[in-house]
Amino acid sequence: MRQLFMICIFVLLCTAACNSAMRNGAQTRALKSGMQNTLTLSNGEVVYDLNGKWDITTQVGTVSTLNGVVNIKQEGNQFVGNLESGNFPMTESQKIKGQLKGNDIKEIKFNTIHGWVNSLGEIANSGKTLEIITESPSEGFDIFSTLKKR
Q: Cβ of 99: how many Cβ atoms within 10 Å?
């Protein structure tokens, strides 16, 4: 029983350390109306304001690095990012789309050469940085994208 208790404590501490590391040691705090880079929705919920131009850098496995500019338009907690320029090998302009929940990304999809792929996303740097991880459906590697607000 004591050994099981120690294992549970170890797992709990590792989970807390991983969460802290993912957020660069920063504590997650609830967004409040009037905070910088936020919007207050009609239902009173406060979310990050992602509207505007973002520089995007995407690392495709070890194969290549892609760069460009994405213009994000947000309505309520929904957002769509259109690629305005860059060296991405796609003709479709929509690059990302998703939904926010407070200071988190509830859902995000990334448009790859295989179409839309469910991804993991995180908002950092007080709403000025987006980190997206997308598993490539057929190549067996991850696609890492960083968007920085201009």
A: 14
Element (H, E) at 16: helix 2-22
Q: Give 3-state DSSP helix, strand, coil % of the chain, rounded to 5.
A: 15, 50, 30
Q: What are the DSSP calls for 55-72, one per residue?
A: EEEEEETTTEEEEEEEEE
Q: Are 149 and 129 in contact (CB under 8 A)?
A: yes
What pLDDT, in 10s, does the model give residues 71-121?
A: 999 999 999 999 999 998 876 789 999 999 989 999 999 998 888 999 999
CA gap 108, 117 in Å, rounded: 9
What band does 27 get if pLDDT is binned at 50, 70 and 90? very low
Q: Report DSSP state, residue 19.
A: H
Give the chain's end-to-end CA distance (angstroms, integer): 54
Query: Residues 117-130: pLDDT tens digits?
Result: 999 999 999 999 99
